[in-house]
Amino acid sequence: MTSAPASEAEPKPAERAPELGTLRIDADVPGAQVFIDRQFVGTAPLTADKVAPGRHRLNVTAEGFDGIAQTIDVEPGPRDLTFRFREVRLEATLAVVHKHRIGSCQGRLTATATGLRYETTDKEDAFSVSLADLETFHVDYQEKNLRITLRKGRQFNFTDPDGNADRLFVFHRDVERTRQKLGL
Length: 184
What we know:
The chain is mostly beta strands. Helix content is about 10%, strand content about 50%. The chain is built from one helix and 14 strands, in the order ββββββββββββββα. It has one helix spanning about 165-180; strands spanning about 20-25, 35, 40-45, 45-50, 55-60, 70-75, 75-85, 90-100, 105-110, 115-120, 125-130, 135-140, 145-150, 155-160. A seven-stranded antiparallel beta sheet has the order 11-10-9-8-14-13-12, with helices on one face. Strands 3-2-5-6 form a four-stranded antiparallel beta sheet, with no helix packed on it. A hairpin with a 2-residue loop joins strand 9 and strand 10. The longest helix has 17 residues, at about 165-180. It is elongated and about 90 Å long. The termini are far apart.
């Protein structure tokens, strides 16, 4: 009597690596609208399947909040993204000239949500303070001057190296918006 050959299990086909990306998008504000490459894809939280690999522009908006725009590189497979509207963000830098009573020096003002920093080669003029420690923060557009007085009483007068009052105005505006959001 011959025995039936043992049935050989067929090998499972190898799983193919994903060729498209899947973005799982969430936000700290429910119902935030999500756009990929200017195309509305839905409201957060959502999953965007079949996103072609490569560079894409994400825009997420929520009523009552500043929109968030971000360029991302999509790779095959899943990726989680969370957008935080309730966080206060500020990243601003400005090349400036500090006008002294006699002479001047050049440097850079940097503002974040935690503070304002002036970097220069003149170590006597450099400072770093929290946004709450600004006693005066005023831009005079016609005079092309940004005046900053620290709570410790030191006063600084800054101009743009190219005499561009617009850059001073935009820097001032962005810092003031952040100070308002923080309740300062």
